[in-house]
UniProtKB/TrEMBL annotation:
Entry keyword Hydrolase: yes
Recorded superkingdom: Eukaryota
One GO CC term on file: nucleus
This protein's encoding gene: usp37_5
Low complexity compositional bias, start-end: 27-37
Reactions catalysed, as given in the entry: Thiol-dependent hydrolysis of ester, thioester, amide, peptide and isopeptide bonds formed by the C-terminal Gly of ubiquitin (a 76-residue protein attached to proteins as an intracellular targeting signal)
Similarity comment text for this entry: Belongs to the peptidase C19 family.
Protein name as annotated: Ubiquitin carboxyl-terminal hydrolase
GO molecular function: cysteine-type deubiquitinase activity
Organism: Merluccius polli (Benguela hake)
Length: 408
C-alpha cells in the first residue's frame, strides 16, 4: 500500500497545524487558539460576546484565517477517514489475490472462479478433517483447502506461492509441461484439476474405513440423455451418456444460441433394430442438472495450419434458463430432488477471459461475484479491483472463454 500523499500546511494566523503520523489534530494548542466552527454556532457566552463586539479589519482578517484553518482541518479529517476506510477495504480485497509464480495466470483465473462458488468451497471446508492431516491421500485437495484459507487471510503471501506451485506440480502427472514455466490453457487445467480430484477421492473411498468423502467436483457433474429415432419407423433408442462436468460450445453471437446449437437434432447413419432402416435423428437433453454449469466457448479454430484465436463477440446473459433443454425423463437429480427438481435457472457467477491475439500469447484474468453475492470483482493475479456486472457483461464479450453459472 502506498503511503498517504503529503498535504500542504494549512494557513493559520498562529503557525502551522500539527498533524502527527498523518492523523489530524484539530485541538487548539497554540497561545492564540483557533475557534472551531462548532463553537461559533453554539449558544456559549463566548460566542454571544464575539457576536456583540464590533468587528475591526484585524478581527475580520483573523476570522477569515480561522475559517480557512477549520475548513482545512475538516477536509483533512474527511480525507484521512476516507483513506482509512478505503485502505481497510482494499486490504480485504487484496487478500483474495493470488501471486503469479511464472506464467500461472491460467491457474489463478481458474482457481478464483472455483473459490467464488459457495457449494464448492463448502464441500472443501466441511471435510477438513479428511484432508488436513499430512498423511492424507487427498494431497491436491489439501493444497486447495489451505489456499482457500489463505484467501481468508490465514496465511502469508509466501505460503500462497508454495501452495500454487504444489497445485501446478500435481498436474504434471498428466502433462509434464506443468513442471516448467510455460503458459497453459485454462480450460485444460480446469479439466485436469477435476480429474485429479476425482482420482484422489476414489483412492480414499477405496481404502478408507469411512468412505463418507464427497468430492467437490460433484457440483459440476451432470448427465445427458441421447434419444435416437429411426427416420423410417419411428423406433426410439434412449441412452444415458457418461457423466459430464462442462460443455464446449461453438462461438455464436449469443451464448444461449451456442448452448441450444449443442442440443439441436442431428442426422445419423445407423441400422434400425426394428425395420433395418439406415437413417436416424439424434437429440440430446439434460437428464440431470448440475449445481454449477461450466460453459467453455471455443475461441480457437484450426485453419489447417495452426490454431487461430477468434475474437468475435458473444452476448453473455446474467441469467440462463435450461428448461427447454431438459428431456422428458430429466430433472435436477444432481441435487436433492425434493428441493431442486423444478429449478432450471442459473445465474452468472464467474468468467475466465483470455486477453491476447493468439493461443501462444496473452493473459488470463477472471471476474467473479463478490463475497456474499454482492457486487463483482476483477482478479488479475494478485491485483483485485471492484467492478459492476453491467461492465463485466459488456467488456468480456470478445474475451470470455469459460463461464460459470450457479443454480439460482
Amino acid at each position: 500500500m502506498s503511503p498517504s500523499p503529503s498535504l500542504p500546511s494549512p494557513p493559520s494566523p498562529t503557525g502551522s497545524l500539527d498533524v502527527p503520523d498523518g492523523i489530524p489534530n484539530t485541538s487548539a494548542s497554540s497561545s492564540a487558539p483557533v475557534s472551531s466552527p462548532e463553537g461559533l454556532l453554539s449558544g456559549s457566552s463566548d460566542t454571544q460576546e464575539y457576536r456583540s463586539c464590533q468587528e475591526t479589519p484585524d478581527d475580520r482578517q483573523l476570522k477569515s484565517a480561522e475559517s480557512k484553518s477549520s475548513s482545512w482541518s475538516s477536509s483533512l479529517l474527511s480525507i484521512f477517514y476516507s483513506f482509512d476506510r478505503s485502505k481497510t477495504q482494499r486490504g480485504q480485497e487484496e487478500k483474495l489475490g493470488l501471486p503469479n509464480i511464472g506464467n500461472s495466470c491460467f491457474l489463478n483465473s481458474a482457481l478464483q472462479c472455483l473459490y467464488s462458488l459457495p457449494s464448492f468451497c463448502g464441500d472443501i471446508a466441511r471435510q477438513e478433517a479428511l484432508w488436513s492431516p499430512q498423511s492424507t491421500s487427498l494431497k491436491l485437495l489439501r493444497c486447495l483447502g489451505e489456499l482457500y484459507k489463505s484467501r481468508q487471510g490465514q496465511s502469508s503471501y509466501k505460503e500462497k506461492r508454495k501452495l500454487l506451485r504444489s497445485i501446478k506440480r500435481s498436474m504434471a502427472e498428466f502433462n509434464d509441461e506443468y513442471e516448467d514455466y510455460s503458459e497453459q490453457d485454462a480450460h485444460e487445467f480446469l479439466l485436469l484439476l477435476f480429474m485429479k480430484m476425482k482420482m484422489e477421492g476414489e483412492t480414499l473411498q477405496g481404502t478408507s474405513t469411512s468412505p463418507s468423502y464427497i468430492c467437490p467436483v460433484q457440483n459440476f457433474e451432470f448427465r445427458l440423455q441421447c434419444v435416437r429415432t429411426c427416420s423410417s419407423c419411428g423406433d426410439k433408442v434412449i441412452q444415458e451418456e457418461e457423466v459430464h462436468n462442462n460443455l464446449s460450445l461453438d462461438l455464436h453471437p449469443l451464448l444461449i444460441t451456442g448452448l441450444k446449437s449443442f442440443f439441436k437434432p442431428s442426422e445419423l447413419e445407423c441400422t434400425c433394430r426394428q425395420c433395418s432402416g439406415h437413417q436416424a435423428t439424434v437429440v440430446r437433453h439434460f437428464l440431470t442438472l448440475p449445481r454449477v454449469l461450466v460453459l467453455h466457448v471455443k475461441r480457437y479454430h484450426n485453419d489447417g495450419a495452426q490454431l487461430r484465436k477468434v475474437t468475435d463477440a458473444v452476448g453473455i446473459p446474467p441469467l440462463l434458463s435450461l428448461a427447454s433443454l431438459v428431456g422428458e425423463q430429466g430433472d435436477a437429480a444432481g441435487m436433492d430432488t425434493e428441493d431442486h427438481s423444478n429449478q432450471t435457472t442459473y445465474r452468472l457467477s464467474g468468467i475466465i477471459s483470455h486477453l491476447g491475439e493468439s493461443i501462444d500469447t496473452g493473459h488470463y484474468i477472471s471476474d467473479i461475484v463478490g463475497e456474499n453475492g454482492t457486487g463483482w470483482l476483477t482478479l488479475n493475479d494478485s491485483h483485485v479491483t471492484k467492478t459492476a456486472e453491467a461492465t463485466v457483461l459488456k467488456t468480456r464479450e470478445e474475451t470470455a472463454y469459460i463461464l460459470f453459472y450457479v443454480l439460482w
